[in-house]
What does this fold into?
Amino acid sequence: MIRRLLRLIPPGTIAVGAGLGLLGLASYVHLAVAGHSLTEADYNSLSVLWAIVFTLGIGVFMPVEQEVARVVAARHSQGLPPGPVLARGVTVAAVLLAVLVLTVTAGRQLIADKLFDGDGTMVTVLVGALAAMAVAYATRGVLSGLQLFPWYGTQLGIDGGLRIILVALLGLTGVTSPVWYGLVLVAAPLVSVLVTLSPVLRTVGGGPPVAWTALLRGLSLLIVSSLLSQVVVNVGVINVKLLAPDDVVAAGALLSALVLVRIPLFVFGSMQASLLPGLATTATTGDHAGFNSLLRRALGIVTALGLTGALGAVLIGPWLVRTLFDAPDVLGHGDFAWLAAATLAYLWAMVLGQALLALDRHRAQAVAWAVGVAALIAVTLVPAPVTLRVELAYTIGSVVVAATMAVLLRGGFRRPTTPTRPLDDAVAPAVSGGIR
It folds into this structure.
């Protein structure tokens, strides 16, 4: 029975899942220690920092990882070294990081005043965390493209393990500044990259150069989709701070609740590492039955994950956030029901989005996320209690994204369109750390 289940799991899932599991655990430990150590206002600031870092970090740099992985995989199948791809990928990541840093620097005082109660140091931490994510995602693209999943999982695991150790030290020594808890998001990923750099450095140099078009072909649309997907899942925390700036507990309580209800997203992240290559391979080779079977199986798995997580979140979520994160008692079972429903719909959207990418329909995926964000904005602007507004916005936005993707894929469920790319160019291990 166990062997049969293992055969159903895509290759690389266990290695990536182990590292991702530790990284996911680190998120809970990080926020739990901070919640018990910081004042409500400081925890609110850390929560906003957390939401911005992962919205921009994952939204901008995960597509770089995906495209580096795609081109590395294509070259590897032809016996070509990946060094030139890494050089191009690092350059792209550096340019994107520079744009973010310049933007944040230009609006430093405004960001500090509106989001961090005037604390400019938190803006500096934000820049450092974005830089760390840029480095991490660029190197992970090489590890993923070469299918070095044990190394990939090790980098995730070291990142998570260091976060746990560092925040434990902060808690034990009585540190009460949100800046130090934010700096953990800078130090841990940088150290994890250094420890796992040897297999990446072995790829440096050699081989014919890679054309810029090979890397940039779908990057802009991927960044749009990735950013919008992170907006859907993270912007609620930021919106609470903007819509209710005098409420010193709402943003922190919402982040604590979101971290709990999004446990299934961490689990999905481990299987996402090999979902896109599988879908792309079956679509490109014309294996319609295999494409449909893999897609249905993935949807079934995430539905089971989402429903299981929803049941636990609704039943004991309010008690858990008070116990684990020392969160104020401002969210009830109904709040967790909305957040859990939103997470289930978001999981569907993640799977359907991978199917669109496998069919080389980057534009369709971007359109679906744009429609969902438009729905989210519309709901957010409806007069209602702030917390309810952001919960409904997350739910309706996620449902609209999933429904739009389903409509766009409706014909593809039965007759997937063969992508115009050659097979070795279409197969791209897509790895997401999820929401960390």
The longest helix spans residues 40-77. The radius of gyration is 21 Å. Residues 10-426 form one domain.
